[in-house]
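Figure 2 data, in text form.
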Amino acid sequence: MTAAPPLEATDQHALADEIFRLMVAQGSLFAFDAPIRQSLANLTTFMAQTHQRDEAAMAAALDAALRDDARFIREQLDDQVIFVTSRQGAYVPRNDADTHSFKQRLHEPDYPLPVDDISVVVSTSRPAITTVEPVFISDYWQIQANEVFAAEDQEAEGHSIMEVAPVALESDVPIEVEVVPELVAEHELLVEPELPAALPEPVVAAEPVQISEPEFVAAPEPEVAPVVAELPTPPVVEPVAVAPPPAPEPEVAPPAPRPLYERAAVFTLPDGMSIDLRRPIDEIIAEHGSLLRQALNEKIEQDPLRRIVSFGSRFFPDANVINLGKNDLRKIRDYITERGEPLLDSELIADVFYHNARQSDYEGWLFSINYRLYREKDFEFVGVEGVNLWSAKGLPAIGGKRIKAAEMGQLTSYLVEGFDDSAEHEDLERIAVEGSMTLTLPFFSWEYGVLPLNASLQALLPKPALVDQRSSVLRFDSPQHYTTTLVEVRYPTGNRGGWLQGLEEFFHEHLVPGAVITLTRGNEPHLFSISYEEAEEREERILTLDEKKNKLGFTNLTYYSTVNPDVVPIQARFGRLNRLKSFPMGERRKAEMLLEHVAEVMGEQIGTREAPRYALSLDDIFTAFNVLRPGTCALMQHLIAQNEQFIADDANPGAFFFTPAINTADDDEDEEDDMQKSDLPLDPQPTRRRYGVRYADDDE
């Protein structure tokens, strides 16, 4: 290792420059004139390690170099030496002295104006209010005040209004009349201000006067006789007049207290039902909560001013609803479309309007955004009670477009017609309490990823939050595969049933027709889990649908789930299922026609070709019928009972005989079709397309 040069050769100016750059880098985030401090000990340790010098020699060199540099200020703090600088060079301490004070110049001007009159000076005190503002006083306090005044008047009547002491006329003492101040003060309240009581004028005798008999002035007397004094020389003595006391006002009886308002303890609804309001509030809500809510909604709807608006079960003053403009609505629609799925109202408020739950107007924003979006045609509410989800126009349909909503509503119409036998009433209560149910997956549900919304599913799933709500979106989690699937619930409307759609990908990837699945309610109203019981690996030839050819066939499938062997469409048991015709969805709503087709395909021929007759069981009919469309055993039994071509087998319960009707017109049409096909050339040329190019088999 090369030895370092001696310390004496180090330039002090270069050393000071290095320390300045080091401290400026340390305070790069400081203000331009902010002080940057560093102790000599820290600088010595760093520089000694950097230059491989002795710390004592480096400390002396640093102290000497920085002491003489104008960019540094040396401070001594106890036993520690600190150097101070700034990003602009030498540190200049800030001067906080207030040399320009507007307050001082305002109150102490250099050239004050002369004040000739003190009244022109503006006073800082607030002038007294000369007008008396009217104050409303409750009837209760007015009655109490009248009672107090009446009691004081009764006490005043027991005393004399005015007492006059005997007047002794001396030669050098004027006549004095003594008046009780308390009684005068009381009567001054009763005397009108424009009629003041006349005070007696004292008579002063010019010379000594001798009085034979003193006279007394009594209070009840209306007037006092003049006092006459006998003098040696007959002087004129003016009479002393005492004003009569004002007549007491007649006693006014206090008004009778207002009778207390007796509140009605019974509330009557518009339909005539009476509710006793003295009962506990919990019992009233539990028994009549829906009726009271309906009556409240009707009263609010009847308000012509629309002062209170509602969304679902929430109410809010219309004056406090936040208005959303077209630009705000466009931002919300674009954000939902960008995310590609329905979003919560809280997400829209946080991500689009940057509001959070800690702000005071958050509840107002929650109601306002739901209320405004509900009134817009470009948005659709797809949430449930407690969870407000919003979908926008332009989002991709959940579950694809293999089945139209109108066609699926007609296929599930049997649920609203009374043929739902999914569970008994006790089972529905258990499902609602436990929040879990198990069901078997038919072929139609597995192929298209739909589940009919029967009574069992309605007991498990949440109810719609709005009266006219058409659908809702739920989230199904798979704990076995760590996947999440959005499922749309279509509610029954009119004569059309409801269903769930969106599980096609999950069914095809993990399950087979006839699998047993379990649906469980989650922690949130819109969260659910779907699971199945795992089993050993098995491979079977199971019925599938070739969508391109629109034809049913059997395919080798491997599955790991528990299945119901009576429903799994395997080739070993239901080998005739591939003969079923895949009708268009518009024709599958004709349940009677499908039933006859299923009987001809699945039934065992026991008749002749000229007089065909088939024997089949109800289980075979149910399995084959659910290949083409959903249905229940109750629907099968109803269709069989209404069709005269089916006859029950008395020897075998659950078995039937089917005799199809012979239609000669169909045979003639088949012969004509065969003749038309025979007239066609054996090898027709491909159809010409534009620009003279023909279609070939490779183009298909």
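Caption note: The chain has 20 helices and 23 strands.
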